[in-house]
């Protein structure tokens, strides 16, 4: 028995133990699962490439050649687009079939069919907020696109060609572990990325929490704790940008907000979902070429959310990453342009309180009239259980998510969700056109079709242009419209118009020679439209811009270094204040040692340092204690963000929120900082004495790339990486740079580098599973093979020919 097979057997044994301890619902028939001829043994792979050199595929019109590089990226060379995407579907299914199935079940609310009752409410939630419906609507839009529809059809045919030739022995491991079979793929499922990314990137809001806070604190205190904009910000669009259009007029009506309080709100997207991107013009690069960098900061998973490709025909030559199941490259480059995206926080969701006529909920009140509501019956099959029936009610605003059957509150709450993602979209059409764009003009035409989720599109070209665009469908709102719960019966709260594309936020070739975005405020107050969001980032964007203002004669390694920058801007602005408040006269030796560690720190969150751990624990305790009053209320309220908290601590030494509820004394800011410092020291001592921790930063934060089923044996923890949330290298415990890309737009041939924390294969039985994680953590990149010399490159480690059957 070879060493690898032994290790793999041990891993599966542990995983089975995990499943039997209720980590996941249901286990397969053990004899079948443990069979050396059909079970998990068949998923073990030897090192190296184990693909067939020649394959036959039904439906191809000509041979297709696939070159594999050391990252195992397939470089697919086909004579036409149909063959190209048919092979693409086949190869994606080979590497990521179970993940594709998992994603489709997530979007369509069907996880309970294989995971059991524990995911029922999750499935119900995803259908209630409309992920299934928006995917169906997206396909309906694509049906009229004569170029994109054949791409989706060919891709699905390729996926199904792979599924059709599988035996049980060849099923991906997770199918065996959960005891179910792969389903046929379809163009509908290939639209799943839009719903997934919209759910992750544009559903975040705090309307109900804001309403609660407004009712509890009053307007003046609310504005102090939750300001729309604070401080000297560095927005995405440079401040020197001038707006020459006449904006659409909007007048705020004199109407009150319904201050109905809500005890519990639905789960929101993770607040650390973010990203950064930046581009420099030839004036700042040593070569004189444009350079572009992008890293989307998302949940770190195995398999990775991204799959990398190079797709080539006579009229298309594009490389980058996409979500498995989706044939269009979402972040990447071609011979002429490169593009990267970051989330652009713009409030895309509004909530409306609905009044039904009676308990039957067939009619709802609007504009002093009763209108007919639509009822949609949803069926949920549950593994090992009976089918569950749910009724979703739709009004003209959107689905009624909160009602007597879901987050019922007092049994009378009915809140309808209005979300831009519910509207018909041509976003995938836009991305398809970007893949083929040859210049800035082509790119801009594609931007017209992009409707969300809102993204900061960074652009670079071989012609020397850099630009940033924030396209999408945005309602024209009066100030604070949609910031709180609104009365669904009053037409005055409705959206009346949308911002014209010609009024979109963009900047091109600024005099300063660079552009960047990192989820911060998109623009200053001179832009005439309201651009509220509850979750703008205050640190990463300023750090990137600080560096780009200074750097010159840049080379690609400078772009990589900035992507991996570990400077803690937040600590640099808060720690001096915190240390200044300390009463050092009462320090013992241990307190002095920690003080010395913090005082000598240069604010870089490097993996081996102890200071970041000490600071972060102290800050977390301080932040929790400041807002302990909020934790005690019986309604849902967000804590004020970190930037606001630090600003209040600096400005008000007698801050009322500094008082600790658990004590009889009246604490000041100074008291609170001294008390929390001692609590942090005590906690750190316990960690070291009882848990034998060395307090190095990477150990303390424990960045983990976790399997989608949360199976520990298929996850990688204690990744030796620096950074953190609010740091450019935003690697926190479970979130971080999910793909890093740097591109140099050399007119003689595009050059690019990339890496992500995972692997092309999703098979835990492969020695390549997660093989890029260590390289990603240390800030190393792979050169991305691209260009006419690929056929003879020594980076090609395997060549495969796929022929018509």
From TrEMBL:
The UniProt keywords, alphabetically, are:
Hydrolase, Zymogen
- Is Hydrolase given among the entry's keywords? yes
Q: Which residues form a coiled coil?
A: none
Q: Which Pfam families match?
A: Penicil_amidase
Recorded family membership: Belongs to the peptidase S45 family.
Q: What is this protein called?
A: Penicillin acylase family protein
Originating species: Marinoscillum luteum
């Amino acid at each position: 028995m070879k060493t690898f097979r032994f290790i793999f057997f041990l891993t599966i044994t542990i995983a089975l133990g995990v499943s039997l301890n209720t980590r996941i619902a249901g286990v397969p028939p053990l004899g079948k699962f443990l069979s050396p001829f059909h079970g998990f043994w068949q998923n073990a792979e030897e090192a190296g490439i184990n693909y067939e050199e020649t394959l036959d595929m039904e439906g191809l019109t000509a041979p297709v050649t696939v070159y594999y590089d050391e990252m195992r990226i397939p470089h697919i060379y086909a004579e036409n687009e149909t063959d190209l995407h048919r092979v693409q579907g086949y190869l994606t299914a080979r590497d990521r079939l179970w993940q594709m199935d998992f994603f489709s079940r997530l979007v369509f609310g069907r996880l309970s069919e294989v995971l059991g009752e524990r995911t029922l409410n999750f499935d119900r939630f995803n259908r209630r907020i409309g992920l299934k419906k928006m995917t169906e609507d997206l396909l309906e839009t694509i049906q009229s696109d004569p170029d994109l529809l054949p791409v989706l059809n060919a891709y699905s045919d390729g996926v199904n060609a792979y599924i059709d030739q599988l035996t049980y022995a060849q099923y991906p491991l997770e199918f065996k572990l959960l005891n179910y079979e792969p389903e046929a793929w379809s163009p509908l499922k290939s639209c799943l990325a839009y719903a997934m990314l919209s759910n992750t990137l544009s559903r975040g809001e705090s309307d109900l929490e804001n309403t609660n806070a407004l009712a509890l604190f009053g307007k003046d205190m609310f504005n102090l704790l939750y300001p729309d904009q604070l401080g000297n910000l560095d927005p995405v669009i440079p401040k020197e940008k001038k707006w020459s259009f006449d904006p659409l007029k909007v007048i705020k009506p004199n109407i009150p907000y319904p201050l109905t309080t809500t005890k519990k709100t639905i789960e929101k997207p993770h607040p650390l979902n973010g990203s950064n991107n930046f581009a420099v013009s030839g004036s700042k690069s040593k070569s004189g070429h444009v350079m572009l960098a992008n890293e989307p900061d998302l949940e770190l998973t195995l398999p990775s959310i991204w799959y990398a490709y190079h797709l080539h025909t006579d009229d298309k030559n594009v490389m980058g990453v996409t979500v498995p199941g989706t044939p269009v490259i979402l972040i990447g480059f071609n011979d002429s342009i490169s593009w990267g995206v970051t989330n652009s926080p713009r409030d895309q969701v509004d909530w409306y309180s609905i009044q039904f006529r009676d308990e039957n909920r067939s009619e709802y009140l609007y504009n002093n009239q009763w209108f007919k509501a639509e009822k949609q019956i949803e069926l949920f099959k549950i593994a090992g259980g009976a089918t569950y029936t749910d009724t979703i009610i739709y009004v003209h605003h959107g689905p009624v998510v909160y009602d007597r059957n879901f987050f019922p509150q007092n049994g009378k709450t009915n809140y309808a969700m209005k979300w831009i993602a519910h509207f018909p979209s041509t976003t995938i059409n836009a991305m398809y056109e970007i893949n083929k764009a040859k210049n800035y003009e082509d790119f801009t035409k594609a931007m017209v079709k992009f409707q969300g989720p809102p993204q900061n599109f960074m652009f670079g070209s071989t012609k020397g242009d850099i630009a940033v665009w924030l396209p999408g469908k945005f309602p024209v709102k009066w100030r604070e419209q949609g910031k709180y719960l609104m009365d669904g019966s009053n037409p005055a709260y409705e959206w009346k118009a949308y911002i014209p594309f010609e009024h979109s936020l963009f900047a091109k070739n600024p005099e300063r020679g660079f552009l960047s975005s990192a989820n911060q405020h998109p623009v200053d107050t001179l832009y005439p439209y309201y651009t509220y969001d509850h979750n703008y980032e205050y640190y990463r964007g300023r750090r990137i811009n600080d560096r780009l203002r200074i750097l010159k004669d840049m080379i690609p390694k400078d772009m990589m270094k900035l992507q991996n920058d570990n400077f803690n801007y937040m600590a640099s602005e808060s720690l001096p204040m915190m240390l200044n408040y300390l009463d050092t006269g009462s320090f013992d030796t241990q307190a002095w040692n920690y003080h010395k560690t913090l005082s000598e720190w240069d604010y870089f969150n490097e993996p081996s340092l102890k200071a970041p751990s000490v600071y972060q624990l102290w800050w977390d305790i301080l932040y929790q204690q400041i807002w302990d009053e909020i934790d005690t209320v019986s309604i849902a309220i967000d804590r004020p963000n970190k930037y606001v908290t630090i600003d209040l601590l600096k400005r008000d030494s007698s801050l009322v929120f500094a008082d600790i509820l658990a004590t009889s004394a009246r604490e000041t800011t100074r008291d609170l900082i001294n008390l929390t410092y001692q609590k942090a020291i005590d906690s750190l001592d316990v960690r070291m004495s009882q848990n034998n921790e060395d307090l190095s930063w990477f150990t303390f934060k424990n960045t983990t790339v976790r399997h989608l089923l949360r199976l520990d044996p298929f996850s990688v923890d204690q990744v030796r990486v620096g950074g953190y949330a609010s740091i450019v290298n935003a690697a926190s415990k479970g979130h971080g740079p999910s793909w890093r890309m740097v591109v140099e737009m050399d007119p003689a041939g595009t050059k690019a580098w990339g890496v992500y924390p995972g692997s092309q294969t999703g098979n835990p039985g492969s020695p390549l599973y997660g093989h890029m994680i260590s390289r990603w953590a240390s800030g190393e990149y792979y050169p991305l093979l691209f260009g006419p010399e690929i056929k003879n490159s020594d980076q090609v480690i395997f060549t495969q020919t796929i022929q018509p059957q």
